[in-house]
Design a protein that fits this description.
The protein is mainly alpha-helical and about 250 residues long. Helix content is about 80%, strand content about 0%. It has one domain. The two termini are about 20 Å apart.
């Protein structure tokens, strides 16, 4: 597909995304609200989480919540609806490849995730004066790898559950448990041992750490990036196989 046509397709997908209140609410409003609530609860003088104050901890961790909401809640029902309503079939008949449509949707998700992150950091600044990242390239790398991983996971959900309602339900059912045991809600240190063990299999935990570690000066932890990349590759290949068979 020629670049001008892909740009038009991406612009169309952006307008369609903004018409979906659930997607906009969960990617922009939800992380912002829970950041203020959770940070207010755990921002206690003299108490630290991973060596930083509660407010600083939750400002950064909720960027990962934006990533998870984009991949698990915003993308799956939108992509699945194209197959359910036959839109993808008609686009292919018009010589518009399905890959281009999915890439345009992913590009919109990237743009919205960046915008939601800017809104989150801007809104948090007056109330919680967080420090600047110790490693900006490390934070950017964690953000990009984490978002790609969750977008691939979202496409896999859309491939396996090809109706709007089922994809939306599965995404929501996955989002909240992953959020609660990732360290982006209650700190991992206050969770029971069984939940901390389960958190080792939570991709959102690795997205949280991939952002926090370079931000707080702990360096770029390769394990976090490798786990996220592996999830992205497996999910992307799985989605491609299912879409191809369909």
């Amino acid at each position: 597909m020629r670049p001008p046509l892909f740009a038009k397709l991406t612009w169309l997908e952006a307008k369609l995304f903004l018409r979906e209140p659930l997607a906009v609410g969960f990617t922009i409003a939800y992380p912002l609200v829970v950041m203020f609530v959770i940070a207010g609860v755990f921002n206690r003088p003299g108490e630290e989480i991973r060596g930083v104050g509660g407010a600083e901890y939750y400002v950064v961790s909720n960027i990962a919540v934006v990533i998870a909401a984009m991949g698990l809640i915003a993308l799956p029902p939108h992509a699945a609806s194209y197959f359910e309503r036959g839109v993808m079939r008609r686009l292919r008949a018009s010589s518009v490849p399905a890959t281009a449509v999915l890439l345009a949707q992913s590009a919109v998700c990237f743009g919205v995730a960046i915008a939601a992150t800017v809104v989150l950091l801007g809104a948090a600044r007056p109330a919680y004066p967080y420090p600047v990242p110790q490693s900006v390239p490390g934070v950017v790398l964690g953000f990009v790898v984490g978002l790609i991983s969750f977008l691939a996971l979202g496409l896999l959900i859309a491939a396996l559950f090809p109706t709007t309602r089922s994809a939306q339900s599965v995404g929501l059912v996955l989002f909240f448990p992953l959020y609660l045991i990732s360290g982006a809600a209650p700190p991992l240190s206050v969770l029971p041992s069984a939940m901390r063990l389960a958190a080792d299999f939570d991709p959102l935990k690795y997205a949280v750490r991939a952002l926090q570690d370079p931000w707080f000066g702990y360096g770029i932890t390769v394990t976090n990036l490798v786990v996220l990349a592996a999830i992205g590759v497996v999910s992307g290949l799985g989605a491609a196989l299912v879409f191809r068979r369909r």
